[in-house]
Specification:
about 150 residues, 6 helices, about 60% helix, about 10% strand
Length: about 150
């Protein structure tokens, strides 16, 4: 199966110089490849470049985590804090992480995946500290609160 990564226009550096405004406006909408001798460069919209970078970053993390799970490794190198979670919680994280990655690929709302990981890391930190867990679950007296 052949996959075309960039089906864009190929131009040379001379063409770019002579029609700079046209090619820069075009690159805002779709990538433009430039050949200069043996060098190949791409002009791409900054938001598209960000999305490509972040997709690659998060895909690598998720794939590495899935590989750890399929190899049934005891400790995660991707998320070392997983050791504080129960098996059911790790399964739930796995499902949520895959669903979240799928969603952010469509929406480009990359903050959602960071928030999910931050929430699970905080859950693991609470599980790792019985004292903190006890404090968070303690009943509070409303009269102890300071009115603002």
């Amino acid at each position: 199966m052949a996959i075309t990564f960039l089906s864009d226009d190929f131009i040379n550096s001379k063409e770019l110089r002579s029609n700079q405004k046209h090619w820069l406006e075009r690159a805002y909408l779709t990538p433009v490849s430039i050949r200069s001798g043996d060098k190949k460069l791409v002009l791409i919209n900054r938001e598209q470049a960000r999305d490509v970078y972040l997709l690659n970053y998060y895909a690598q993390i998720v794939v590495a985590f899935c590989q750890e799970r399929s190899a049934d490794e005891k400790e995660s190198k991707v998320f070392p804090w997983l050791k504080h979670l129960r098996k059911e919680q790790v399964k739930q994280l796995h499902k949520q992480l895959l669903a979240c990655l799928n969603e952010v690929i469509q929406t480009k709302d990359w903050l959602k995946i960071e928030e999910l990981l931050d929430d699970w890391k905080a859950t693991a930190e609470v599980a790792a500290s019985p004292r903190l867990s006890k404090e968070l679950q303690a009943e509070e007296n409303p009269l102890d609160y300071v009115e603002l």
